[in-house]
Specification:
Elements (H helix, E strand, L loop, with lengths): L2 H7 E11 L13 E3 L5 E11 L2 E10 L4 E9 L9 E4 L6 E8 L2 E8 L4 E9 L3 E10 L3 E9 L2 E8 L8 E7 L7 E2 L6 E2 L11 E3 L2 E8 L7 E10 L4 E9 L13 E3 L3 E11 L3 H14 L1
Antiparallel strand pairs: 1-2, 1-21, 3-4, 4-5, 5-6, 7-8, 8-9, 9-10, 11-12, 12-13, 13-14, 13-15, 16-17, 17-18, 18-19, 20-21
Amino acid sequence: MSELFTRLFVHPQWFIAYRTRRPFSLPYNSTGFTIMKPDPGKFFADPFAVTYNNRTYLIFEEYLFEKAKGVISFVEIDAAGNSSKPQIVLECDYHLSYPFIFRWNEKMYMIPETVANSTIELYSTDNFPYEWKLEKVLMEGLKAHDTTIWISDGQFWMFAIIDASNEPYSNLSIFYADNLFGNWTPHPQNPVISDKSKARPAGNLFIHEGVLIRPGQNSIKRYGHSIKFNKVVSLTKSDYQETELSHFTPDWHPGNLCTHTYNFNERLEVIDGMEPRIDWLKPYRKLVSKIHKLRN
């Protein structure tokens, strides 16, 4: 394809994929995924898997090109592996992405990325997954990307890329608190990681064979190109250390250029990908998007 044709009619489109959960292993075995591709004019990314009342859902970012912003949507995955149609459950005046979902004290919470609002916002629900309300602004006045919570022995740890210099990939910071609604203290080593190849969160932290693993995005080649699984060696209020264990590249699917999210729960594993897609309405969508931005 010529450069002009690509510029006019081709755009990178993110999609999500899921499969029945398998035992985690390194190097990561990425076969057997069912791909869920969006319609033109949208993309799906940042999937999280949740089983609630014996029903399993994917919660993810649905980006709407015509509105020039992301919203948070969900699909239900039935026992046969079929997905429902996407349904929007949270939309704000600003862009939303990376809907970090977690359960605490028998209640479901979500921290979507709200970097466009310079906040870290905590949402809760009494009607999962359909209705969400703003519970508390945990922090404000900062550009935080892909906020991820880890809870261990009653201690809350918050991992996020803090964008202090238009560099949303390299500098990972940690904050800690004794209570989800308490005051969050910055880690004295912040940024604890300054490395474009692994700093930005790529999903939930998890335990594998007694080891705490933190997935991180590798954006050396391009944004969100691949995932590095990192072993957390030390996580205390005064020290953080990690070492790289394995590298998960996007070649699990033909034509795929990126993979930047990995999550699982007791039933499903979920990842995402990105591939070029021809969209004959791209010039129109770009125009509508620009008009929408001017009006807002």
